[in-house]
Records
---
Amino acid sequence: MINDASSAAFERAQALLPGGVNSPVRAFRGVGGVPRFIDRGAGAYLYDIDGNQYIDYVLSWGPLILGHAYPAVVEAICVQAQRGTSFGAPTELESELAELVIAAVPSVEMVRFVSSGTEATMSAIRLARAYTQREKIIKFEGCYHGHADPFLVQAGSGVATLGLPDSPGVLKSATSNTLTAPFNDLDAVEALFKANADQVAALVIEPVAGNMGFVLPREGYLAGLRQLCDQHGALLIFDEVMTGFRVAYGGAQAYFNVMPDLTCLGKVVGGGLPAAAYGGRREIMQQVAPAGSMYQAGTLSGNPLAMVAGIQTLREIAKPEVFERLTGVTSTLCQGFWKAAFKNGIPFQAHKAGSMWGFFFAADEVYDFTSAKRADTVMFGKFFHAMLEQGVYLAPSQFEAAFVSTAHTDELVAQTINAAQAAFASIRS
Ligand SMILES: Cc1ncc(COP(=O)(O)O)c(C=O)c1O
């Protein structure tokens, strides 16, 4: 595969942008090699500037559940662009998307739109602190909630990929109220609550972890967290930036039937444009300014282009048959990859929930960040490049999830599994 144009573009970008990118994991540091510079996307395909075609399982890190450049979404964006791209004044589009979100996500009664997942989670904990009049939060090792200071403790995603310590520049005072526990360990959370009685404002979690690789909650774990929060007067915040409209139309809370107090959304809710949201019980949301006194604002919040992209996307995926199909596709991929790895004698495991999936090069169960870090990242890097050579674009890090879209046909899935079979055979040593 020729990468001359990507190599030249990367060299140019490195002189202009730190590491040549605007978000760290895009730089391929976790797997080595030259990041592919993208020319365009269409359906399940990405095309790089050297003219190479890839079946895309990153999908802009989750948002593109309908695939690239889905005609109805593109059309809606074009129509809106002609009418104006930003007003800084309310539009009916915001209420239209809010109605769709509230109808879809069971625990959400009111919603505030922002422009990124980082803003959503940062605002949600400010709100939880305002509501409970408490200062501490509990987060989980390997979970990623965007790059706001209080969350950059034992964070997943790019922080895990680069093996970074908690980031320089984050003041100790900004994280001194952040307590951490291992994922899937209820006893550890109970101990934190007991040691910090009446001080914990909220517990924030990715209900299915997608930023330390893909890790499912154990049976009863989320319900157990709900119970502990109730017992100790803390709010339960589900960060569904990744899982929202992904593991089910109603998110992980619908999938596992556990209701948080606050929910953070992003990615799919903006249909590939920058929109995100936090929402929850009316009584809590009423504390957000100007209804209440918890201040949070944004010049481009509720941006009309992002609103129409979100509206169109949610309308398309609201049908139950869409999720049935997406779930079938991820099952086929997980089984296909696992069988191919097994045939080649490679320790491997793959899991899925709805349209989100992931795998580890590990023999033992991965259930938290420590066990995720035991997975073989060297093997992952080899597999990643072997897949890329065959035109399959996976996340360039072991510590990320994979996604599918409605554009991933059975034929493309079969082609991907054949590629995986060849990739496993080539990396077996
Ligand atoms: C679970 C989760 N929360 C928050 C974020 C931050 O979202 P954004 O990158 O839009 O700021 C991400 C990003 O990947 C995420 O996966």
---
Amino acid sequence: MNVKALEIMLGTRRVGVLFQYPLSHDHTVNRFVADDDFASDPQQEILSLSYKAGDPQAQAAFWRAIGSAQFNGSLSSDAKRGWLLPAFFQNLLPEGPLRTRIAQMRGCDPEDQFELLAATGKDLPGDVHAMPAELSRDALARIITQNNDALEMSVVAAPMEDAISVSGVQAKLAVLKAGGRFVASTKLTDEHQVRHVIAKLPVANYPHLPELEDLSLRLARAAGVRVVDAELAPLELLAAEHHYDLGDVDGQTRFLAVFRYDRDADTATGRVHCEDFAQIMGVQPEAKYTLDYLTVAAVMQTVPSLGEAAVHELLRRILVSDLMGNPDMHLKNIGLRYPDAMTPELPPAYDIVAYSAYGFVKSGRALHLMPPAPGVHNAFKPLSPVVVRDFCGRLGMPEKPAWSTLRRCAEQAFDTWPALIAQADITELMKARILERMARFRPGK
Ligand SMILES: Nc1ncnc2c1ncn2[C@@H]1O[C@H](COP(=O)(O)OP(=O)(O)OP(=O)(O)O)[C@@H](O)[C@H]1O
Ligand SMILES: [Mg+2]
């Protein structure tokens, strides 16, 4: 039986091994096993909130339960995808056109999840690293409990220097901004004075998408949401090869450079660990539209460093998405980060886009606000005082501060958005549609 293994590092510390072996012709095991040294450390760093137990004893027992669902991949609902990695790891993988591109560079099947993690293991989101592991027979026998008489290691190739994993379905590149240009990291010899950037490229079917996303981030900021730093830049400054079909573009056509909050840090690796709510909830990327914002808020509420302030920020982001018609704030578009490796913090908001500008968004949200009662259709309800009372009531949280947060946010939006929209570099029709969308929420409507 052939076993492939990757050692998983969190920062500079090895925390365990992710391995793969075929259990039978239609069952592939993808399993993470934590190292004893990490599992029994009472001061251990956070790999994922989904892997957190209440106290050191419970934590050590949690890591030892290697058969549990959190540590094992599930079978995808899409037959062509096969067996997925454990949800935390599957969510680290590139998606969309970037996945196709990396699979091509690696010469592997785009659905070979394990190989894609191995290919991008040097540059994954957050501060996790995956490197080929050579395990001794003893180490193998310890982590593989079934049919372990005929185990043999297969060699996993080293990660590729220029393969960077970022999730999300839009065409994008991970690059460095250096001296006013945006370059592939491998081309850079001097790493000073650079900033890590996700370059979100123009998309043929969505005219002016980078300009629209830039506007949307500015709208959200004007309404009081903390948002990522981003800037529009002409494609002629992007000195990185890509193979995307960008439609009818020239050197002046712009892309959106989004500065990363998990890089350029004052840590041993220069990275800050982070994860998204699909990882935190133990949900596979393909189920990123499941669950609801109340569940996300409930997690925030149980973490002392997040608490009510984070829930208020979440509510602001929901309101802003409602007002501009952003139906895409799914579990992977909300995250947490761990600047000191231990304490969760809500990073700035990203991937906020007023899709109403394209005229096809009705009134949807990516997730339900609250879980639907059995058999009841969960229709879209704006964040009214009654709805906010219900939401806060279910969290056992005071409703008044939440409501004043939202009222202030809406006031700021109605005060500032028309001017920002008027100045934006998008078409008049796009502007009119966003204004029409927000007018539906004007008090008294
Ligand atoms: N500023 C940032 N710093 C660090 N990570 C980021 C940042 N912005 C986005 N990300 C990560 O990159 C992923 C992809 O980015 P983004 O959501 O903007 O792309 P997308 O392709 O538009 O996504 P979607 O599939 O939701 O449409 C996010 O899910 C998040 O994990
Ligand atoms: Mg996204």
